[in-house]
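Q: For a teaching session next week I want to show students how multiple molecules come together into a single three-dimensional assembly. I've collected the sequence lines for a complex. Could you give me the predicted C-alpha cells for the whole thing so I can convert them for display?
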Amino acid sequence: MLDNPDQEIMGAGASRHSGPSRRSFLKIAALAGAAVSLGSNAAKAQGNIGFWATDLTQEQLLTMYTTILRIRWHERTMVDKMLTDAKYRGYNHFYAGQEAVATGICAALRNSGGVMNADLVYSTHRPSGHALAKGVDIKKMCAEMDFRATGLNNGYAAAMHISDPEVGFIGADGMIGPGPVIATGSAFAIKARGSDQVVVNFGGDGTYATPHFHSSLNNAALLKLPFIYVIENNLYHQYAHYSFSCPMKDIASAAAPYGIPGVVVDGQDMIQVYNAARTAVERARAGEGPTLIEAKTYRYYNHSGAPGASPGELGAFGYDPLAISSFRPERELRDWMQRDPVNIARDVLIAWKVVDRARADAIEAEIRKEVTDAFAWAAEQPLCKPEDGLKNVFVEGTVEARQFG
Amino acid sequence: MARKSWMYSFLEAVQHEMRADPNMVWIFELTPPVASNPGMPVINLETEFGRGRVVNTGIDENWMVSATLGAGLAGSKAATYIPYQGACMPFQTIQNHAGKLRSMTGGKASMPVVFVLEMTGQTPGMAGQHSDYEIDTYYAHIPGVKTVIPSTPYDAKGMMASALRDPNPVVFLYPAGLRQLIEEVPDEQYEVPLDKAVVRQEGSDLTIVGSGASMPEVMKAAETLKAEGMNVEAIDLRTLKPMDTETLVKSVQKTKRLLTVDQSYYTLCPGAEVIARVAENVDGARYKRVAFPDAPPPASPEMFLWMRPNADHIMGAARKLVG
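A: Of course. Below is the structure for the complete assembly, covering every listed component.
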C-alpha cells in the first residue's frame, strides 16, 4: 500500500477499537455460514480488521512481521539464485504474493510439540511459505531444496515434499486431490483421542473441482472434525483461471451445503487472515467442527519456477513457455502488487505503533541477512550418496539395486 | 512428410479423427491440446472444434476418465488426456468399469474410447510423485483394456489413429520424457497396429527388449554394443496388452539370450512378463532384467540418476549375459 498508505492505516487503526460487538457479529456471521465477498479494495472498508488481532502482544505481532519478511526474502533470494546461478539446481513453486495467508493462518496455530501436540498443517506443491510460517528451520529447508544430505529430509524431498512433523508441518504434496481427505483423517484421530489439536489444509482454487475437496468437507462436517480448509484462491490453477473449475465467484460458498461456516477473507492482509483463522481455530478446539476459509490472493510468479522473472525484480512479467495459450494479464499482476501483503503488514504495524519505519527497515535487513546466510549454509552442505537411494523404502533396511541387471 | 515432435504428431492423429467424426469429444485439464511445429500450422483442438466438443475441466481426473467412458457408452467416440499428476486417480473406472463392461454386458457395451495417460518426464530432482515411472505395470494388468506405449513420434501418431478407431477402450501411455524426440512423420493419417512389437535393430547375439521411456537408452546401448562387435537385436514392445509374444519368442530362439530393460520398478515390470512368456516357449536361454529398484525415486539427482536404468547399466548387463 505504498501508493495509498493513509487509507490503509486508517482502516487498520479505526477497526482496532471496534471491540466485542464487532467480534460477536463476526462470530455469528461465521456460524451462520455467511460468505462475505470482498472487492479488490478489501476488508478495510468494512472494518473487519482487528477484533482478535488486538489481543496479540507486541511480540506476537513482531513475530508475524518477521515471518512474512522471511517468506518474502526466501522467495526473492531463491528466484534470483535460479536466474543467476547456473550451478544452483533448486526449484520451487513460488509463493510470493500470498505470504499473508500462511503468516496469518499459522499465527493462530500451535507450532511445536510434534504430531501429538502441535496443530497440523497439510501443504501443497507451493509449500515454502507454509513451512516457514509453521516454524520449519530455514537453513535445513534451503539445504533440502538444494538436494543436500543434511537437508530437512536428507535430500529425498526437495521442494515438493518437505516435511517437519516436529513443528506440525505434515508436509508439502505434489498432487492435487488426496491431501485434504488425508488431513481429515488426522483430524478424526485427534478427535478420537480427545486432543485439542486442529488440522489445517492449505489448497489452491484448483482443488475445488476435485472430488476430494467435497469429500473432506462432507466428512469433516458429518463428524464435526477439528478441520480447517484454507483455499488460497490466487485465481489460477497452473495456467487456467479458476472459473474453469468452479461455477461460483466465491469458493467459500461451497461451505453452505455442508452446514459449516464459509468465510471469504482478504488474503493480502495477514491481520484479516489471522482473525478468520483464530475464529476457525477456536470453533475447532471447542468441538464445533470445520470451517472453510477462502483467502483471495495472487501469486507474483508463474506456476512453476521463475520463467519470465528478472533478477532483483519482484514478480514475473515476462514469457512463460509452459503457459502455451493461456497467459495471465500483466496489468492484473501489477494491480494486485498495489496491495502487497508485506507492505500492508508493515504499514499496519507502524500504524499500531508496534514499530516505527526505521525499526521496520532494520528488521527487514536482519531477515535478509538470515535468508542469505541460510542459502550460503545450504550450499556448503554435502551431497547425497547415490546408494542411499535404496534406503527409506521401509523403516528397516535397504532394497536391492536392480538397475545393473 | 516433415520432421515433427511427439506432441505434434500425436495431435495430428487426433485432429484428423475429430474432423472425420463430428461426434468425437476430447476432455482435458490444465494444459490445452496445442502443438506447433516449424513451418506448419498450429494445432489447437480447443479453438478448432470449440468448447462444446473440447472441454477444459477443473482438476478432476476421475470425472475426465469416467465421462470419456460414459460418452463411449452413449455411442460417441471420446478421448481424454490425463497429465501425470493424476494418472492413477481414475484407476477404478478403467479397471472396474471400462475393463469389465464388455464382458459384463455380454459384449453389448460400446466403448470407442481412449485414455491418454501421461507418465512423468523422470526429471531428476522432482522426487517421488513427479519422477516416478510405474503405471505401465498397473494398467497392463487389466483385462479388457488395450495398453499401448509408443516410443517415437511416428508410432505415437499411427498408434493414436489406431486407438481412436479401435472399438475397445485403449490406455495410451505417454512418457513425457519423450517430448523432445523429433523425427520424420507423414502428414496423412496412417495406422500402426496395437498388437505388434517392432524390431528396432537386428542381431543374433542378444535380444534386448524395452518399451516407452527406456527405448532411447536401449537404442544407445544397442548401437554402441554393435559397434563393439556384439550383435544386439533390439525390440520395442509398443504394446503391453496384448503383448506380441511371437516377435519376442522368434528373437530369443535365435539369440538364446534375453535382457529386458524397464524404467518401471523391478517387481512385475513389463520385462518380467516378457521373460515369463519367452521362458515358456524357448529352451536353454539366459535372462537378465534391468529395472528401477523397488523404491520411490528420491529427489537428490545423485541418488535418482544412479538408480534410473541408463545405457551404461544396459551395456554392463549385456556384457554379463554375452561375455
